[in-house]
Amino acid sequence: MTAAAKHGFTVNLSILFGELPLLERPAAAAAAGFTAAELWWPFGAEHNPSRAELDALRRAFTHAGVRLTGLNLLDDLSEGARGTVSLPSERDRYRANVPVAAELAASLGATALNALYGNRVEGVDPAEQDALALEHLVLAARAAYGVGAVLLIEALNEAESPDYPLVSAAAAVEVVDRVNAATGLGNARFLCDLYHLARNGEDPAAVIDTYADRIGHVQIADIPGRNEPGTGELDFEDLFARLTAAGYTGVIGLEYRPSTGVSADSFGWLPRELRTAAR
Q1: Angle at the Cα of 168 (from 145 to 232), degrees rounded to 5?
Q2: pLDDT at position 224 over 70
Q3: What is the pLDDT of residues 14-35, one digit of tens each?
Q4: Count H helices, E strands: the chain?
Q5: Could you confirm whether 255 is annotated as catalytic?
Q6: What's the pLDDT score for residue 190?
């Protein structure tokens, strides 16, 4: 892919190399030629892991020579949740998690925190959830700013996340704009996940063209199977070229499931010399 040569890549170790224990994944990524990785919140439902757990994760990255580029705030994905930002029941845990996540991210060089919005809760007024989400996103944006990071807000796809309210680029960007207006910091950004957009029936190319000035990070997987590029319908050569033309200079996160179940075998589409995060 000639257009890929214009971009750096980071591998999501919460979905790739998932066949290995978490602490072995950074070394596996390095062996495959990657110099950077990103993570969903890696401690499950534990919002405030022990110092020993945090230090073990840091050692795994530093010993492998892999930089962490992005980290999710408490998301509870292991329990089927889609973030905790808007959930009244998670208020205390979320607020306690923000400084922990920000400090962990900063210690490994990450410049992005991803705050998944959270599912709608039966019996709770959506307006109440949205007000809480704004309060919590402002808190997270300030914490991210304090460590030199952006705060990412992501649209998911309705088929896989039917209770998640941000299922379009426009909906996510609207929240981005509200957070920036509230903080005045300008560090809330749109996480442009091309897989989720396409699964929602949006045109990823049009989203790139429309919201280029709001994009803070890009993630990819092919559709419909959420596997590596070349296994589905998306024209990544065109999409990478569009990102370049739109002025996007950040890394692209590989957030796909390997089609064969073996992560190391899923990178044939990306020449080894292009797997570094630096371009």
Answers
A1: 105
A2: yes
A3: 999 999 999 999 999 999 999 9
A4: 8, 8
A5: yes
A6: 98
Q: Which amino acid is residue 228, in one-letter code? A: E
The verdict on whether 174 is a catalytic residue reads no
50 contacts: CB under 8 Å, gap ≥ 6: none
Say if CB 236 and CB 268 are below 8 A apart: no
What is the average pLDDT score of the chain?
96
- Helix ranges, the chain (H): 25-31, 51-64, 91-107, 126-146, 169-183, 194-199, 204-211, 236-245
Alpha-carbon distance values, 188 to 2, 18, 213, 216 (Å): 31, 29, 12, 8
The predicted pLDDT at position 6 comes to 79
Reduce the DSSP state of residue 209 to 3 states and report it: helix
* Distance spanning both ends of the chain, measured CA to CA: 15
Q: 163: how many CB neighbours lie within 10 A of its CB?
A: 14
User: CA–CA separation, 164 vs 148, rounded Å?
Assistant: 28
Cα separation, 183 vs 166, whole angstroms: 21
Catalytic residue among 90, 202, 228, 255: 255
The average pLDDT across 41-66 equals 97
Task: Give me the catalytic one of 38, 154, 202, 228.
Answer: 154
Q: What is the pLDDT of residue 243?
A: 96
Q: Are 3 and 218 in contact (CB under 8 A)?
A: no
Angstrom distance (rounded) from CA 219 to CA 95: 26
Helix, strand, coil % in the chain, rounded to nearest 5: 45, 15, 45
What is the model's pLDDT at position 278?
A: 67
